[in-house]
Amino acid sequence: MVFGLWTIVLKTMSKLFIFGIGGTGSRVIRSLTMLLAAGAEIKNCDKVVPIIIDPDAQNGDMNRTVELLKVYRRIHKHLGSNRSDGFFKTDISTLSGIANDTDGVVQDTFVFDFGGINQRFRDYIHYNNLSPGTKSVVDLLFTEDNLESPLTIGFRGSPNIGSVVLNKLVDSAEIQYFAKNFQKGDRIFFVSSIFGGTGAAGFPLLLKNLKNSNSPLANAGYIQDALTGAITVLPYFALQAEDGSVIDSNTFITKTRAALSYYEQHLNGLEALYYIADTPDAPYQNQPGGSGQQNKAHIIELLSAMAVLDFMDYGQPDFGSETIYHEYGLSEDASEVQFGHLSPESKDKIAESLSRFLYFAKYFNSYLREDTDSPYYKNLELNNLLGREPLFKDLDKLINSNDFGFLNWLKELGNNRRSFAPFNLDTDDFNRLIRGKEIVTKAWNPFDKGISHGFFRNELDATEKKLNEPDRFRKFVSLFEEVTQKAFNEKVKAV
Q: Going along 217-312, which residue ranges are E strands?
């Protein structure tokens, strides 16, 4: 007699921890979230955990990224984590969410809690209580403007201030919790700029502390052995010159050179380091911090987000003992970048997913409410759900929010000197939506409409009958995943 044995297989849930440091870190995470919402694939992990580090609690770039992450998380949570393909398939979690922290050790947020540093740098270091000798050293290292700088709006382009404040991160509850829940096989990625204050100081300090061979952190061995990557964003924008402003973009290159010299000698523990930069665009408004610091999305941030996807493509055997260095280059110095200007590898990562999600967004806005008599619309009872049910409201926000929405993100990307403009956003004609991939219909063939409202409506009706899904929101999203996939495969790939 043969007895069967039940074997319990525990799947290792690998995580990618992304430290988004400073304003650039937030903007890159915004672009990464858009790519994941569209269904771009991120390999070798089951969960992405963004940790945004910025002492400026009112930073506009950070706060709109956080709102986007919250909306994405709610949508993904309802759709479920058991889907291998489709929109919102990647699990994005807060730090506390990775272990269902119910003790309140860390807040359920994507942002590192600085505890509201509501004081000047002078008061933060207790300058008035220092000995005369120590004061003399401090006076050599910091200007009077540095000492008087309010920490409530970050480090205002001063990495020397940031290095003092951020050096205490390793002792925080967040980093302790991160280490406690770090497992073998998890990965780390840093996103920061090199020409500001928070990013330039925070990245090397965090790397040094996390990779310290004498680290007191829990699971220090796993952290030291973890595959670790980073993207360092060099200058790609300028700021308007303003008398009295603490930030002068004319110093960006000088700061970059100094930081690069330091990085060359002191960055240890990285498997891969990505560099990216661009000629500055028309100067942004000079906002040292606060809610006014909300810059339009830029192709550099999109390509930086793609560096995360690229890093995750590699397996352990692909790395050796030396750091692999990457730079990004376009096929030509184009001012209006379309999919054809990207390398085949880059295009494969994002072109199809962004196109399909744009089809979804355009149909959601322009045609959905014209389908009230369609069987799929009636069976899903969309008349009672659109604009009323919370998840459909979240979906509408993610697509249409003027603050952080997908369509506005694409518009911002297209509104720079070097624009990312693969789509014709001003049209609702699906055949003309992808630049360089326009679908030419045959006038003599009344059945050849390419991708039309009628094509989508017929496919939605036919597909809805086949889907066995009782949850209306999940069924709604699945419908558009399948129909946009068919449209892209049958119509766009043939062009």
A: 228-233, 272-276
What is the distance between the alpha carbons of residues 305 and 379, in angstroms, rounded to a whole number? 39
- Of 364, 407, 412, 408, which is closest to residue 387 (Cα–Cα)? 364
Q: Which residues on adjacent β-strands are paired with residue 337?
A: 420
Q: Kindly report whether the global pTM for this prediction surpasses the value 0.85.
A: yes
- Calpha distance 205→267 (Å, rounded): 9
Strand 187-193 relative to strand 15-21: parallel, antiparallel, unpaired? Answer: parallel
Exposure class string for 17-34: b at 16+ Cβ within 10 A, else e: bbbbbbbbbbbbbbbbbb
3-state SS of 427-442 is: CCCHHHCECCCCCCCC
Going by DSSP bridges, is the β-strand pair 419-420/15-21 parallel, antiparallel, or unpaired? unpaired
Domains and CATH numbers, the chain: 15-328 (3.40.50.1440), 345-492 (no CATH)
Q: Which contiguous run of DSSP H or E holds residue 325?
A: strand 324-327
DSSP 492: I
What's the distance, CA 202 to chain centroid? 18
Strands (E), 31-169: 47-53, 91-92
pLDDT tens digits for range 376-413: 999 999 999 999 999 999 999 999 999 999 999 999 99
Top pLDDT among 290 and 463 is at: 463
Q: Which residues pair with 325 in a beta bridge?
A: 273
- Among residues 162, 73, 82, the alpha carbon closest in space to that of 114 is found at 162
> b/e per residue, 116-152, with b = 16+ CB within 10 A?
ebeebbbebbebeeeeeeeeeebeeebeeebbebbbb
Q: What is the DSSP letter of 10?
A: -
- What angle do helix axes 406-413 and 22-37 make, rounded to 10 degrees? 120
Which residues face 51 on adjacent strands? 19
